[in-house]
């Protein structure tokens, strides 16, 4: 600002003010706050460190810039009507187009649809895409390391559409059993394979050669992804996947008692006509100006259910707008910074927890980003509930950390666990039969 005024210092700026009237003491200006800290300061209701949720398991807290809520609160975006009439829907069509562009960039795929209800139904729809593309095959494989909620929804879809859905077992290290996968693919009756990155245990699996193996046996590779991690991990496109799906909730969408969520589905150009939902394309109007329209959209999709590729096509895309605003505000550097903080916090907490007696990493030496599994030698303490993580069984706990889980909060959490472990009055739970 001084440069714009043609000045070099504050003294130049205040040169017209008599010295006797100038404030000559140090300014008592506090350090800058982040948006989250400032909000807590105004609300005077900062959450106690000990109550920070560490649940994760497919549902992730991330702070979001204030502009996200401001934009989606505008009345012109509050509609569930499909924007068929392009001449009066340019704003809606444009942000959907931007959402598609951003998702293809994150996933490394060629095309994206407008959005879907959530990541679970998007994965199930991808399963149906694989069956439709294979024509005479109706068997799909899904890894045991995919979120069980996703597996259950896919199972429901499979039952309703006469699709055989078989589970690929996991190894003792928490990875997909690639030997078992190869054995199943060699039967040459598989339409698609569904894997996860990161997987349900937070592990970043190595899928080298998996795409080639699937394609060798004429099966499609489907990757279920955590969107918030995509800016810093190897993308589905780089792994050679045919379809990338998942939930965009981890891109700043707040957790709110079960919603809202926003699924995404990206694929290659050769599968675009098998893709469910809407696709928005860019074109030019009668005056040669850039414009946006729905494209490759058959009317049967909406009015002849028995002929439709899918019946998921009425999502108003409000959360797609939220995600688009979030990614625009954060940018590549912001997303890198968020993931760096989350990763640092997770690894620090994991290291600190493993110093406690009877606590260890369930999958040591496996790479993870911001979610990991710890193992309790004598069983998970009875005082633990969802606040402290997600119970996988009587001995394993899945823990998630976010960018606001500071070193102080981490130390406090470890102290709480240390106290519980040394004072647990309840008998250790007996192992449940599988």
How many domains? The number is: 2
- In the CATH hierarchy, what is the superfamily of the largest domain? Type I PLP-dependent aspartate aminotransferase-like (Major domain)
Gyration radius (Cα, Å) is 25 Å
Helical fraction:
25-40%
Describe the structure.
The protein has twelve helices and 13 strands. The chain is an alpha/beta fold and 434 residues long. The chain has a seven-stranded mixed beta sheet with strand order 1-7-6-5-4-2-3, sandwiched between helices. A four-stranded antiparallel beta sheet has the order 10-11-13-12, covered by helices on one side. 33% of the residues lie in helices and 15% in strands. Residues 46-50 have low confidence and may be disordered. Helix 6 (148-160) links the parallel strand 2 (139-143) and strand 3. The chain has two domains: 40-64 and 331-423, Alpha-Beta Complex (Aspartate Aminotransferase, domain 1); 66-326, Aspartate Aminotransferase, domain 2 (3-Layer(aba) Sandwich), CATH 3.40.640.10. It is flat.
């Amino acid at each position: 600002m001084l440069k714009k005024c043609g000045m070099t210092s504050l003294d130049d700026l205040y040169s017209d003010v008599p010295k006797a009237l100038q404030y000559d003491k140090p300014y008592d200006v506090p350090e800058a706050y982040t948006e989250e800290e400032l909000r807590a300061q105004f609300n005077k209701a900062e959450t106690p460190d000990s109550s920070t949720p560490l649940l994760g398991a497919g549902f992730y807290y991330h702070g979001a810039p204030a502009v996200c809520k401001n934009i989606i609160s505008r009345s012109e975006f509050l509609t569930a009507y499909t924007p068929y009439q392009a001449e009066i829907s340019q704003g809606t069509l444009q942000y959907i187009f931007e959402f598609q562009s951003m998702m293809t960039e994150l996933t490394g795929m060629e095309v994206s649809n407008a959005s879907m209800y959530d990541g679970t139904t998007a994965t199930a729809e991808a399963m149906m895409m694989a069956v439709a593309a294979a024509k005479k095959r109706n068997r799909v494989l899904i890894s045991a390391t995919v979120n069980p909620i996703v597996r259950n929804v896919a199972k429901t879809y499979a039952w309703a559409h006469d699709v055989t859905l078989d589970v690929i077992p996991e190894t003792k290290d928490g990875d997909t059993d690639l030997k078992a996968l190869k054995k199943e693919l060699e039967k040459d009756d598989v339409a698609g394979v569904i894997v996860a990155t990161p997987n349900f245990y937070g592990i970043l699996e190595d899928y080298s050669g998996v795409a080639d193996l699937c394609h060798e046996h004429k099966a499609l590779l489907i990757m279920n992804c955590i969107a918030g991690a995509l800016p810093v991990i190897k993308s589905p496109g780089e792994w050679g996947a045919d379809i990338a799906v998942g939930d965009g909730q981890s891109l700043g969408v707040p957790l709110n008692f079960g919603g809202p969520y926003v699924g995404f589905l990206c694929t290659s150009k050769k599968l675009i006509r098998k893709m469910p939902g809407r696709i928005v394309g860019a074109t030019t109007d009668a005056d040669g100006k850039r414009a946006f329209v729905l494209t490759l959209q058959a009317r049967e999709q909406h009015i002849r259910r028995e002929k439709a590729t899918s019946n998921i096509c009425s999502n108003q895309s409000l959360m797609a707008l939220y995600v688009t605003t979030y990614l625009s505000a954060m940018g590549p550097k912001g997303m890198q910074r968020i993931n760096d903080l989350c990763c640092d916090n997770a690894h620090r907490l994991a290291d600190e927890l493993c110093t406690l007696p009877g606590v260890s990493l369930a999958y040591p030496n496996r790479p993870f980003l911001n979610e990991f599994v710890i193992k309790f030698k004598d069983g998970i303490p009875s005082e633990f509930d969802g606040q402290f993580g997600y119970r996988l069984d009587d001995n394993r706990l899945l823990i998630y950390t976010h960018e606001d889980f500071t070193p102080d909060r981490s130390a406090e959490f470890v102290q709480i666990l240390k106290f519980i472990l040394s004072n647990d009055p309840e008998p250790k739970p007996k192992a449940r039969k599988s």
